[in-house]
Design a protein that fits this description.
alpha/beta; six-stranded antiparallel beta sheet; 13 strands; about 325 residues
Length: about 325
């Protein structure tokens, strides 16, 4: 669907596509990427921005500064860092901060607190579930069809309608709702437009696993001695760089382009049934600490803090 036909001045970088669940969002991502539209998926399992290597390095620089700090200096700090997808996120935070400061400056401690609060939010163009969208706003919102009236375990009968209301009220300017047949919550008086199918733009049958802290053994690096290759490999690793997932015994090893192991997936992780790994990249590097682990595992740790590589994995449906 070409949303620019429905909404004048539609901009993907200020928009969100919201669904009841993740299954209907994967085809949208495939379609968007086939058209060259940058896209992010706001997965509930993505790591906190506060733990990311780039964010931690940026915050450390702010803490080193004395006196009041203004937007120009924050931009100088950011421009001095190696650029990747997460420095782009920091740039968005600085832009939001500039609107709050109105050309003024603030103490470093206040800015650190501001970024900590801002880091709990996400940005568009986003694909996300209605639960993840709570508290967020976007210029333009598209709500996909799919099981809005279904009840999850333990929900009361009004819960789906409340969730749909949350999704609708995320829009500042325009709201488009996609439905096949009669929607359970759309009134008969709603403005309706027929969407023309464009088969030549059909996306490939691919799906993604986003950087997920629940899928990776978070303490593996912490159990390795200083001389292990993983520490040097992680220090050299760049966001977006290619990775290989290699099965060994009951685990999947995470390897860099030189074949060095930088991590390992948890034993419970495996590719979805009927799917093969097409590619993997370094989606995020997060900071982890010994105190984040359960007491029973701490005697096995060799470090107080370490970094963890989180892969972003692309699967092909029916390719095994």
């Amino acid at each position: 669907m070409r949303l620019s036909r429905l909404v004048p001045d539609f901009r993907w970088d200020r928009a969100a596509v919201i669904s009841r669940d993740w299954r209907s969002l994967n085809p949208v991502r495939a379609y968007a990427e086939a058209q060259g539209i940058p896209v992010d998926m706001a997965n509930e399992d993505l790591p906190s921005l506060w733990r990311l290597r780039k964010v931690q390095a940026f915050i450390a620089r702010i803490r080193e500064e004395k006196g009041l700090i203004g937007i120009p200096h924050l931009l100088d700090v950011l421009n001095g860092m190696t650029q990747n997808r997460w420095t782009g996120v920091i740039a968005e935070g600085i832009a939001a901060l500039a609107r709050d400061l109105n050309d003024k400056a603030a103490p470093g401690a206040d800015l650190v607190e501001w970024f900590a609060e801002w880091g709990r939010n996400v940005r568009g163009f986003l694909l996300l579930t209605a639960l993840r969208a709570k508290g967020l706003e976007f210029e333009d919102v598209v709500i996909l069809d799919g099981n809005w009236a279904g009840l999850s375990r333990g929900e009361d009968v009004a819960a789906p309608r409340r969730l749909f209301y949350v999704a609708m009220t995320r829009a500042r300017r325009s709201l488009a709702l996609i439905a096949t047949g009669q929607h359970p919550f759309l009134p008969a008086s709603a403005l309706r437009r027929k969407v023309t199918h464009e088969p030549r733009l059909a996306p490939p049958l691919i799906t993604w696993a986003m950087p997920d802290m629940k899928a990776v053994d978070l303490s593996w690096v912490g159990r390795q001695w200083n001389g292990h290759d993983c520490h040097k490999a992680l220090a050299e690793a760049q966001i977006g760089g290619p990775l290989t997932l290699h099965p060994k015994a009951e685990r999947w090893l995470i390897l860099d382009t030189k074949g060095r192991q930088i991590g390992v997936m948890r034993k419970v992780w495996s590719p979805p049934p009927g799917q093969a790994i097409l590619s993997a990249t370094l989606g995020a590097v997060v900071n982890w600490r010994a105190v984040d682990n359960e007491d029973a595992f701490r005697p096995h740790l060799k470090h107080e803090t370490w970094e963890v590589a989180l892969p972003e994995i692309c699967f092909g449906l029916g390719m095994v």
